[in-house]
Amino acid sequence: MSHLSLKSLVAAFLMLVFFTSGIRAQDGAKLFKQNCAVCHTSHTDAHGTGPGLKGVFDRVPKPADAWIHKWILNNEKVIKSGDPYANKIYNDNAKAAMTVFEGQLDDKAVDAIIAFIKGPPPAAPILAKGPSSDVAATENVGGIDPLYLTLGILVILAILIGALRSVRTSLQNTANRSEGKEENPEIGFWNEVKGWMGTNRRLVGVFSLILVFMGMKGCWDACFDIGVYYTWETKNGYKPEQPIKFSHKIHAGDNEIACQYCHNTVEKSRHAGIPSVNVCMNCHKAITEGATTGKTEIAKIHSAAGFNPLTGKYDESKSNPLKWIKVYNLPDHVYFNHSQHVVVGKQECATCHGDLKSMTLAEQKNPLTMKWCIDCHRQTEVAMEGNPYYERLHKALKEKYKGQYDVKFTVDKIGGLECAKCHY
Amino acid sequence: MCGLTAAILLTGFTSCGKRDVNSPGVEFMPDMYRSPSMEVYGTSVFNGDTIFSSQFLPVKGTIARGYIPYGYPNTDEGYLQAGLNLKNPIAFSESVVKEGEVLFGKYCIHCHGASGAGDGKVGLKLPGPPPPYTSVALKNLPEGKIFHSITYGKGVMGNHASILTQEERWKLVYYVQKLQGPKETASADSTKTGNAKEIKKEEKTK
Known about the structure:
heterodimer, A: mainly alpha, Cytochrome Bc1 Complex, Chain D, domain 2, two-stranded antiparallel ribbon, 20 helices, B: 206 residues, mainly alpha, two-stranded antiparallel sheet, 46% helix
């Protein structure tokens, strides 16, 4: 009974707070978002940089409001005063100091924040549910493969030929019998074919020539596929499933994160770099739910980093590397340098890698053959104007091609076709 | 016999027509594609365990070429000391600020927003957006503290020492300072009641 009355009392108090300070609580929400939300969540247990504030009024020493007010204004002072609870949470949170708000927030603002934390949780933002962007799953659905269609037609034709042949022989036999002649001697199918081929030599020759050329063309085309995973007609290439359903579209497209943030060695090294998990964690420490995959995929990053999202702590012994699958493979006998192309050559990522900002699953968008490299080196003009890297070379080239006006300084003019540039 | 040849033909045809997107294709002389040398992100067998090269830590005491140690620890005390003592070693110039701006556009903008107001696309998805550079708390932040925060991270922000070199971080500091605007000279009144005034204004408009 007493429990019930206490509950109703609290409810009445909450209502009172809510009604008397409607505007205030709203300000509180705004102030909370500006000042506190960076580290705390207001109505959940989720541990950000600081603890989640659900049930905080039951945890802190009574009277709770006054204590929290004191704490928000100057937590250092409270800790130094020897308050046992204050020291306990300070130590529990690895002695990470909270910002002192004295001088930044006045009493009224702090009360507004407290009223907000105490009030009902704000309506959760409704996540926009876009259409499933799993392109791989929707591909090749419906319609019959033309190959199966031709095979089916061939089978039907073969059956027809067989049937017609037996019909013809039986008809001929009945005709012979009625005319009183002898029945045709049983000739084997192959013997008959041989006979036909003997009488139609020219036709057979032409057909066999066509067949031989088709075979050669097929072999020639197949040679282009060796070591190249790329379909020339459709411009589609290698598109392996990755251990995490990482979407370039969401990260680089929708959220406009620069390529270099994750592939941050692209300007400094030969390799563009696959981000280590700590780079993922820079955002995913706080963002634990994805737009399309929910929590499952981000939980994989957390387990790879040994991160516990409930406590907000890392356990390095539990970390394990992610086995990303390399999409753009150059053979080991080719040297390629990213920084050379991106920094000195001023090439955009999309020139070689396609529009990754619209790709859910990364896909090889260029054949990466030597012809492809060479073609680009023949066509691309070197950005020499205002490029200190080429100052000397630019001068020398101007000297060399003096008097010729339509010379384009393409990459091949500065040695872009030298064998040893890439093969050594 | 006939069935067998038909089956072989059929599989032959189908394998020509369709490719497995998970397969990297046929390789001629695979040993030239994948040489036995150690590869970046490759694996190697060490004491019977398969180990990723990224799991290897350098030998203790190894220092990377051009590495400059950063002497302030990732503690509150270190933060405070960095704010007091650390000064930008790069001479100020307009071109350095420009370089800082380019770096900002690659490494900061998605959370902090183009003007540093904390309104980047990712910033708005965080539980709490990053505080604006012009806010009371950050307006007068000394350069040492800015550098320290980029190096170790602060609050929700993560460690960016692995992404940016010290030189790049200092260039960023210049640009962040540009976004902070001119420093306020400790006029205590305006900072103290900044938020309160805002609220009052809003109440009045309502």
